[in-house]
Amino acid sequence: MNEIEISTEFIKLDSFLKFSGVASLGSEAKMYILDELVKVNGEICIQRGKKLYKGDIVEFNGESYKVV
């Protein structure tokens, strides 16, 4: 599992995908989310603005990313 450290209270899902290197562009992150390819804490998430807090786990393309 990849651990991605944030320095704020939360990060929005689309920003997290860019920050972690999963997506290179915001539009790319948006498409991944809208195509239901992203899971947050085990559930498919289609909310681009979903707030992620420390301890949340994002799954994409067989990889897991933990917000720390």
Structure description:
With 68 residues, this protein is of the alpha+beta class. The protein has one domain (2-67): RNA-binding S4 domain (Structural Genomics Hypothetical 15.5 Kd Protein In mrcA-pckA Intergenic Region, Chain A), CATH 3.10.290. Helix content is 24%, strand content 34%. It has two helices and seven strands. The strands form two sheets. It has a five-stranded mixed sheet, with no helix packed on it. A hairpin with a 2-residue loop joins strand 3 (38-40) and strand 4. It is globular. The model has no long low-confidence stretch (mean pLDDT 96).
The rounded distance between the terminal residues' Cα atoms is 12 Å
Q: What are the low-pLDDT stretches, counting only 5+ consecutive residues below 50?
A: none
Categorize the overall geometry.
globular
Strand order of the largest sheet: 1-7-6-3-4
Instruction: Name the CATH superfamily classification.
Output: RNA-binding S4 domain
Q: Which value, in Å, is the CA radius of gyration?
A: 10 Å
Q: Give the count of structural domains.
A: 1
Q: Mean of the pLDDT scores?
A: 96
Number of strands: 7
Order of helices and strands: EEHHEEEEE
Largest sheet: 5 strands, mixed
Helix content: 10-25%
How many DSSP H or I helices?
Answer: 2
State the CATH topology. Answer: Structural Genomics Hypothetical 15.5 Kd Protein In mrcA-pckA Intergenic Region, Chain A
Class derived from helix and strand content: alpha+beta
